[in-house]
Amino acid sequence: MGKLDGKVALITGGARGQGRSHARTLAAEGADIVIGDACVTFPNVPYSGSTEADLQETAKLVEEMDRRCLVRQTDVTKADQTRDLVDAAISEFGKIDILVINHGIFAGGVPTWELDEAQWDEQIDVNLKGVWLTCKYAVPHMIDNGGGSIIMTSSMAGVKGFTGFTHYVAAKHGVIGITRALANETASLGIRVNAICPTAVNTDMMNNQWAYSLFAGGDPNATREQMLVGTEGLNAQPVALIEAQDLSNMVLFLASDDSRYITGLAHPVDAGSTNKFP
Question: Taking a C-beta distance cutoff of 8 angstroms, is the pair 267, 193 a contact?
Fold first, then answer.
């Protein structure tokens, strides 16, 4: 018996990285999976986005665990596409028990006053508006089904004011705001709402030349090893990058009845980074 037998989990941003790890972890505990992912590279993001092939690979990995997996290419900044994703989940499985709002993009490295409007809008649309739209269309079904658990991916940037990333920081602070407000709105309706706040994670978001340069002091030819030295400075524990599975373990806890009286909180999985001083 798995902790999630008979449950259905909808995961955004599930084509690769943390989302793929979440899908496999929840499936291993008995959940059937629905995945949405844009499968594009966004114009102002300095690394390659996921692909349809990534999305299909995640589905294959879930199905190898003898769980069903429905995938849809979905841009959650678009209301019609987000609604269609939720509708497809309900049509296929009849319910959504677990909602993992995991999608996100990362960019920046310049002061607030040097951001242009397109950079600001893209981060806010994907990282904040897309969270709200996913809730807007999924939560009514969860209410009708008698409840469930919602887990949103914020960031340690959701609780700290990192310089050079104001648009990202604003969006991730906003995710925690949605978490807190929605938790109060739905507590009496059987829905729990929590956020997770990762430090830097060993995924494609960090394994690219832009990130190597960013965390190695701006050297355009920086190596991954130099980036690892820089990111280790983020954390209190002596680790440069945590693994996606470290986040998935928290997602599973928050999705299961093990956390049945936990709601409205932002949970750091950050190797001590938010508590680090200086």
Answer: no
